[in-house]
């Protein structure tokens, strides 16, 4: 599904990622944890194709294609989805219109016919039910006037509609109260399948109580310094990130 | 009153990002102006220059009554005492009014013109090519069209159906001949010939335009529309539109305009007057797509227009909606005089300046009656070297108790060489009134574009999506077909401006 080798990336000349290797197979859920500033969001943005980040070294293959040379929309059309940490507002454009435009682009590039407004409405209604989202979301302008929690839920709705092969969730749990967290997690769990993979980027172990990962990786200072099963998350929760720091210092 | 200027900061991005943007610009650029072709047909065009003989010639051509000629001459003499206004935030070399031609009409095989069959094939084809079929079997259902070509109206559709309800919809010249009492009563009653330099010029040399009269209690069963086409070179277009809605009447009026691409600038100085009696409503929508000139600012139309409506009666309502995407220079301030108590004036505007276009546009809302309300929503988009100014006046007179105004001016900047300016003037002489003004300036954000792209939407569609969202409040006030046209027009006009 996804194979990352030795990725280095800079923002405005500062190196944030210092050699990342990661393999994600179909159906797997990987959690990437780490303290603030370790490079978690940068990794998510780089994979999605944000041009503000320069990849200076390394490669990323998604479904066998080298995606680092592809513009963001091409990666999206291949089935790569990013749930944004800070979803962007597009005033005046309804969620339904926005999603229909995106979905049809993705369908077109995969040789499928475009859905007309009626067909899309039907699909959207189903997906809203699936992820337990208020049908009024459809006519509201994209994220405009949404609360923080609503924005995050809207990301999950978009993921449900676009049906990506790989979804990267960038701190989707941050700023959510316990009820919203449950709704978001239920949505993700319903979308889990043997073909679909997830990368959960998170600061807290809390989310992993609801979405149980297959693997947990710790990102520290631009490198994945520790990997393990879901129990690694509990260890981190208990001991904090300082424990990793100390281990690193001892090792060096 | 205070003015605010906004210019995007240059050098905010790193070199590679700017290069990237420029590449996108180049890739998206160079879609030609779709209406830039010219119809070749014999025309009746007078020599260059302006004097009393020319005015007499125009008046005679149209078999006008003496009072109208006298009015034209008064306007001309007044114009000679005036000087061209320089207060607008636009710059252009001085216009030599003696180098212009003031009348051009396609030659007719026979006079007068009684039916469409007599209209020249080439003219019918011209309008068909513009998407305005005039022939009975092809014409647009639900919209009556008056087609104006250079200085004359060539055809008006659906007029029989309208006549049955007592609605008069015809060319201005025809109205002068058939309904002189109405024309004489209302001509210049909202925009007097002395109003401003270009209004005086228009009053002296106006050639044709549309006339519309909706009798008491009649709701116009279809939208009325005028399509203006400039064709002849070096010829100015000076049309007048006069719309009267009697007590309880209502009408939706649409106006569209195009012109061929030429290297010379051409002058368009029009006047529109609207009169709404008690409980009457007039909705006036414009999609202005005159030729804008090229990237270097060569050619294009100078669009110097005076549009004003008067809400004469109680509870009357006048709404202006404009989408201004064309013209090298736009200078227009469609306004409302809110004389009747409880009357309502509205102005919804999208003005786009791309290439080297300059627009100084806005509105005037004059509150005279009690409980009068006005709403101003102005959206300006500046791209490339475009320069866009909103200029608006809200005036509340002493007797306008409880007057209300809400003004919102939003500017969107694309690239770092364009400009957006806001000049709001507010004069309040009544303590029970309330005036609100909100303004914002933003750039299309990279975040918005990246978000769209991450959902599979290509860069060009992403930009047009963000812009259309920005303009939505205004587009919502356009009739359906016009809204579609405006959306398309905006994306075409913006191609090549990603920054």
Q: Can you walk through the features of this model?
A:
The complex is a heterodimer of chains A (252) and B (499). Chain A has helices spanning 40-48, 72-78, 95-109, 117-130, 148-162, 178-191, 207-210, 231-239, 242-251; strands at residues 2-11, 14-24, 29-33, 54-62, 65-66, 80-83, 90-94, 141-142, 166-170, 197-202, 215-220, 223-228. With 252 residues, chain A is an alpha/beta fold. In chain A, the strands form 3 sheets. In chain A, strands 6-9-10-3-11-12 form a 6-stranded mixed beta sheet, sandwiched between helices. In chain A, strands 2-1-4-5 form a 4-stranded antiparallel beta sheet, with helices on one face. In chain A, strands 7-8 form a two-stranded antiparallel sheet. In chain A, a hairpin with a 2-residue loop joins strand 4 (54-62) and strand 5 (65-66). The longest helix of chain A has 15 residues, at 95-109. Chain A is globular. The two termini of chain A are 33 Å apart. Chain B is built from 11 helices and 24 strands. Chain B has a domain at 36-332. In chain B, helix 3 (66-80) runs antiparallel to helix 8, helix 6 crosses helix 7 and helix 10 crosses helix 11 (480-494). In chain B, strands 1, 6, 7, 9, 11, 12, 14, 16, 17, 19, 21 and 23 form a 12-stranded mixed beta sheet that branches. In chain B, strands 5-4-8-10-13-15-18-20-22-24 form a 10-stranded mixed beta sheet, with helices on one face. Chain B has helices at residues 15-28, 52-61, 66-80, 121-129, 159-164, 172-178, 180-186, 197-205, 446-454, 459-475, 480-494, and strands at residues 4-6, 43-45, 104-106, 143-149, 152-156, 168-171, 209-214, 223-229, 240-245, 250-258, 265-268, 271-276, 281-288, 300-311, 317-324, 329-332, 335-338, 344-353, 358-367, 373-383, 387-396, 404-414, 419-428, 434-443. By secondary structure, chain B is α/β, with parallel strands linked by helices. In chain B, a hairpin with a 2-residue loop joins strand 4 and strand 5 (152-156). Chain A binds chain B through residues 12, 48-52, 54, 71-73, 75-77, 81-82, 84, 87-93, 98-99, 101-103, 105-106, 109, 141-142, 158, 162, and chain B through 14, 16-17, 20, 445-448, 450-459, 461, 465-466, 468-473.
């Amino acid at each position: 599904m996804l194979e990352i080798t030795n990725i280095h990336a800079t923002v405005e000349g500062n190196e944030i990622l210092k050699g990342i290797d990661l393999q994600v197979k179909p159906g797997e859920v990987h959690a990437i944890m780490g303290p603030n500033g370790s490079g978690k969001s940068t990794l998510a943005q780089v994979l999605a194709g944000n041009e503000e980040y320069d990849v200076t070294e390394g490669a990323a293959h998604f479904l066998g294609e080298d995606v680092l040379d592809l513009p963001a929309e091409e990666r999206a059309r291949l089935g790569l989805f990013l749930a944004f940490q800070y979803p962007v507002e597009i005033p005046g454009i309804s969620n339904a219109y926005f999603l229909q435009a995106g979905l049809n682009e993705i369908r077109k590039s995969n040789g499928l016919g475009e859905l007309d407004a009626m067909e899309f409405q039907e699909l959207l209604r189903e997906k809203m039910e699936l992820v337990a989202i208020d049908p009024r979301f459809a006519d509201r302008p994209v994220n405009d006037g949404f609360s923080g929690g609503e924005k995050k839920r809207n990301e999950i709705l978009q993921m449900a509609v676009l049906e990506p092969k790989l979804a990267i969730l960038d701190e989707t749990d941050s700023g959510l109260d316990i009820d919203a967290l449950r709704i978001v997690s239920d949505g993700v769990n319903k979308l889990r399948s043997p073909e679909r993979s997830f990368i959960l980027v998170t600061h807290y172990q809390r989310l992993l109580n609801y979405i149980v990962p297959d693997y947990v990786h710790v990102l520290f200072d631009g490198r994945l310094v520790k990997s393990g099963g879901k129990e690694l998350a509990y260890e981190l929760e208990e001991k904090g990130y300082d424990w990793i720091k100390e281990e690193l210092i001892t090792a060096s | 009153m205070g003015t605010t200027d906004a210019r995007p900061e240059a050098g905010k991005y790193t070199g590679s990002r700017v290069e990237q943007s420029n590449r996108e610009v180049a890739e998206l650029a160079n879609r030609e102006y779709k209406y830039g072709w010219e119809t070749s047909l014999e025309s009746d065009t007078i020599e260059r220059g302006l004097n009393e003989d020319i005015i007499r010639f125009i008046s005679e051509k149209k078999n006008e009554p003496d009072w109208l000629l006298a009015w034209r001459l008064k306007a001309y003499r007044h114009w000679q005492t005036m000087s061209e206004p320089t207060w607008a935030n636009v710059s252009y070399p001085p216009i030599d009014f003696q180098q212009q031609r003031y009348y051009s009409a396609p030659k007719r095989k026979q006079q007068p013109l009684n039916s469409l069959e007599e209209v020249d094939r080439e003219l019918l084809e011209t309008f068909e090519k513009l998407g305005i079929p005039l022939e009975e079997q092809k014409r647009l259902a639900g919209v009556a069209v008056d087609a104006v070509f250079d200085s004359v109206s060539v055809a008006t559709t659906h007029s029989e159906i309208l006549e049955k309800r007592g609605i008069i919809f015809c060319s201005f010249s025809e109205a002068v001949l058939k309904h002189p009492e109405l024309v004489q009563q209302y001509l210049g009653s909202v925009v007097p010939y002395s109003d401003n330099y270009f209004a005086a010029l228009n009053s002296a040399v106006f050639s044709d335009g549309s006339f519309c009269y909706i009798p008491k209690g009649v709701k116009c069963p279809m939208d009325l529309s005028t399509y203006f086409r400039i064709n002849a070179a070096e010829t100015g277009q000076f049309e007048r539109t006069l719309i009267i809605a009697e007590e309880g009447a209502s009408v939706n009026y649409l106006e569209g305009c195009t012109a061929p691409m030429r290297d010379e600038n051409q002058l368009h100085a029009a006047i529109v007057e609207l009169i709404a009696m008690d409980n009457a409503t007039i909705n006036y929508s414009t999609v202005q797509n005159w030729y804008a000139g090229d990237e270097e600012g060569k050619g294009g139309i100078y669009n110097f227009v005076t549009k004003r409506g008067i809400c004469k009666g109680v509870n009357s309502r006048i709404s202006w909606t404009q989408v201004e995407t064309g013209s090298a220079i736009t200078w227009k301030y469609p306004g409302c005089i809110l004389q009747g108590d409880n009357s309502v004036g509205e102005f919804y505007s999208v003005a786009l300046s791309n290439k080297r276009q300059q627009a100084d546009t806005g509105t005037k809302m004059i509150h005279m009656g009690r409980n009068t309300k006005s709403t101003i929503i102005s959206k300006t988009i500046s791209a490339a070297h475009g320069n866009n100014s909103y200029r608006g006046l809200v005036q509340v007179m002493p007797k306008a108790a409880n007057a209300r105004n809400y003004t919102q001016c939003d500017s969107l900047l694309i690239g770092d060489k364009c400009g957006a300016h806001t000049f709001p003037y507010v004069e309040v002489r009544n303590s029970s009134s309330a005036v609100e003004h909100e303004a914002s300036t933003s750039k299309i954000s990279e975040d918005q574009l990246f978000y769209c792209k991450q959902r599979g939407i290509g860069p060009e569609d992403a930009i047009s999506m963000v812009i259309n969202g920005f303009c939505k409040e205004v587009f919502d006030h356009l009739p359906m077909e016009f809204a579609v046209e405006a959306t398309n027009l905006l994306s075409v006009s913006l191609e090549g401006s990603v920054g």
